[in-house]
Amino acid sequence: MLNKLKELTKDTAIYGISTMIGRFLNFILIPFFTNIFDPNEYGYVMLLYAYIGLFNIIYVYGLDSAFLKYAAFKHIGDDKDNFSTPYLSILFTSFLLTSIIIFLKAPIGSAINLPENFNHLIIYSALIIFFDSNTSIPFLKLRLERKAKYFSFLKVLNITINIAANFVLILKFKVGIEAIFISNLIASALTLLFLLPKILKNFKPRIHSLLYKRLLKFGLPYLPAGLAVMIVQVIDVPILQALTDVDTVGIYKANYKLGIFMMLFVSMFQYAWQPFFLNNAKEDNAKEIFSKVLTYFTVVGSVLLVTLSLFINEIVKINLGGFYLIGEKYWSGIPIVPIVLLGYFFNGLYVVFSAGIYIKEKSIFAPIVTGLGALVNVIANYTLIPQLNIIGAALATLASYVVMAAGYYIVTQKYYHIHYEYGKIIKIFLAIAVIGFLLYSSLMNSDNAILFKIVITIVYLFFILFFVFDKKEFQFIKTNIFKRKNV
Questions:
Q1: Closest Cα to residue 235, out of 434, 128, 385?
Q2: What's the pTM value of the predicted model, to 2 decimals?
Q3: Radius of gyration of the chain (CA)
Q4: Average pLDDT in the 364-382 region?
Q5: For burial by CB atoms within 10 Å, which of 74, 112, 137, 208 has the most?
Q6: DSSP code per residue over 182-246
Q7: What is the pLDDT of residues 103-119, one digit of tens each?
């Protein structure tokens, strides 16, 4: 069983390389863009990219999740049927939707308050969504086949092309904000071209009708679920702006982005976790394996949470040539970072619990759970922001992720019961609660705060090793991680 878990760890690490590089390069683009374009122009870029994120979900309408399910088990049709049916469906509908958006670009631009001279950016946006949606199934095919290295290579190549095109178009050819969209379009189109051999290898020029019905039945509930998740991710900004001001939104979002460290870990894990549990669902000890996955995810995630929460204040204030991770005027928002990290941690638990939803085909609960999370987010934002300002907005997002994780846990336990290692998990959460209390206490503002934080971190690591792991696990860690290299 531990060897199975090593496979998951290996894939997580490989996917993590591309994810971390991509997030880091995209993070570099933020100061690059904001030092060249004025806030008004960049604001319109962010507006359109918000809609790009939204329509990426609509264009795929849950067929990505359905493909993972049915291509893994192959209950209906062969390999080519399971690939071509969702691919052809997305190809046709994405072409239709893109054509409609381009034709209606003027009224769409007016509806979202986009200046008329920026309407052409809607065309670029629609084409980006078209190409991205048509790479979704091929990329999932690579994940299902555990071709993590090739998957990561293409993802990094896509981002590299995007970055290079931005620098060339903006610095050399002096192109305006159009460069951001043109660069993305070039990268997305080339990525689809690079995936063409994989597409042709698995392509069959027909839709398997029975399989298609099953795919839609399983996948369509993920459309409203995906939209609800998007609401959780973006609704806090307009509410915060309505209840406070734009400066507060800027401070909030700048610090919220520091949650990227936990988000990276969760994203890395998710890429490897979905094909892993689908490929191992029929193993005799599958539930035992999945139980261990939750324990180990909680352990690693908690170590990240504790370490980053304790030292984020010092990390942000490191001076590198007169520059900081975020500017001094944003430092008042640092206290929200541990809350944001905890929110992403619960999002990871939500991902872990999704296994039972896939395996037992209970996707009908996905929109219910995520919809409830979105509703809690909106209510909590309106309730907490007037009292706690940006802390309230962060707590609202945390509340929504807790609700979604709890919802998936309840559904999974009802239809695919797994006996998790509750004793170990409770110990971890109790330790996190104690550290959280200490973090926000006056002790962290003392002259010996750094030393105090170092001691807490070391104590927590020893707590995990000696009070959470059992003897067999401790021996495995000692043998495989801390083993001495042969001289």
A1: 385
A2: 0.70
A3: 23
A4: 90
A5: 137
A6: HHHHHHHHHHHHHTHHHHHHT--SS--HHHHHHHHHHHTTHHHHHHHHHHHHHTHHHHHHHHS-H
A7: 999 999 888 777 888 89
